[in-house]
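Homework help board

Subject: predicted structure for assignment chain

Our instructor gave us this sequence and asked us to write out the predicted structure in token form, then describe one feature. I got the tokens but I'm not sure how to describe them. Can anyone check?
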Amino acid sequence: MSRRSLLATSAAVASVLGLPSAANAAESETATTGGTSTLHLAPANRQVAALRSREISSRALLDQLLEHHTKVNPGLNAVVTLDIEGARAAADKADKYLAGTGRTLGPLHGLPMTVKDALETKGMRTTCGSPDLTDHIPSTDADVVALLRAAGAIIVGKTNVPTMCQDIQTSNPIFGKTKNPFADDRTAGGSSGGPSAAVAAGLSSLEVGSDLAGSLRLPAAYCGVYALRTSRGASPIVPTRGHIPRPPGWLTSSDMITLGPIARTAADLDLLLDVIAAPSPADDPAWSICLPSPTKNRLGSYRVGLWADDAYCHVDTATRELIAQVAAAFRAAGATVDDSTRPVDFAASDNLFTRLMYATSAASSTDEAFAGEVTAAEALADDDPSAMYLKSRTMRHRDWARADEDRQKLRAKWATYFTSHDILVTPAAPTAAVLDQTSVPTNQRYITVDGEKRSYYDQTAWINLAVPAGLPSIVLPAGETPEGLPLSVQVIGPYLSDRTLISVAKLLAPVLPAAPKAPALTA
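My token output:
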């Protein structure tokens, strides 16, 4: 059997591996690493430091993590494919290199981590939750996966997504549903539900998620972890080639999609951003990306915009109270807080985003299917319920160019706003994690906000504010509902202020209510 041919789902890990019991594993680790038996649950920065100092070996950390998988993942279903043989070989290679040279392979030397099943991974089953890709094993890595490997990361397996990343909860016909790590009846969100749940539950200390319509930040908010939607101008700051649902082998992706880090601490976002913020391989010989450092080092120095609620997408009482606590923390630190100025019109921004999203989604349609949509769109009145979807997907290039001009004007409005404000604080979502509705037809799904039935898609309205303008946006967990579900807020910054947003998250964490930890972190 070749090194890469062992592909196992986590439910079968124990029998495949023949791993020792949890008690024996802990005893062995304590004896050999000086009390590091729970290092697999530590933040990535702590793990990387321990690997670099040889406090623990990559192979030992990997086996700790795999033992945790056997206990936690069968009930969560966040990690759907494992390459145990390949991961062990890579970990052994990392250990041998460090022992022989005294040098690390890179900033993620020997760190075991998972990647989203939408990112093509050489030699490892990559399905994007689609039955059509059940047996798809790529021959090359997505650009971002190649960056992870070059930095020394050990790719352990793949995390679950909705079919072709086209839902805001995570389930598909191949692997089934990923549960929220805090409550079985709640959704983990989507499309990065598997990645966010895996990080929250300690199945990986880092992940790379993708975000078009909130697919990175909504699951992070629902699972109580940090996530950064990275800046995107004419090109993304994190290369996107190799991301499905553009079909395997395509070189392009949506003009609004970004990839970004997921972690349990803000500092770990920095660690991963350092690795993945890079030009595409074609541009690498001449281009480099140097994101500006934060210009402020204390909360009181910030000029804060606050958008706590809006009639276009009202939020619930718990979310409003959390936003009020964030505002109070800034004011207590001496920051100026403006809660009245709005950078853009919420409804107009959301409408433009939706049109552009539908337009880009048509790129990979078959000729026959697209021709049928064109015919159907031409027969629809503008006020028909299906008109927005079909007329946007089939718009003429002239219409797209006009929409793109509107997008540039929207970016200019945001840029003007950020001449007098450093950041904007908003809700991440109207509520904490909503009930899972996998078994409910899409057109019958809804959410409840303070007892009121609302559109299923209202979940992403707030986090989609940043998307058409290509702005960075961070979601950070803080506090919890009476039911113990994590709550989160969003902070949006000007284009290329990614590091400033991470810095703000670091500064806010000590002065906001503590976010709950998923039960699996103590398993």
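Reply (TA_rk): Your tokens look well-formed. For the description, you could write something like this. The CA atoms of residues 168 and 190 lie 4 Å apart. That's the kind of observation they're looking for.
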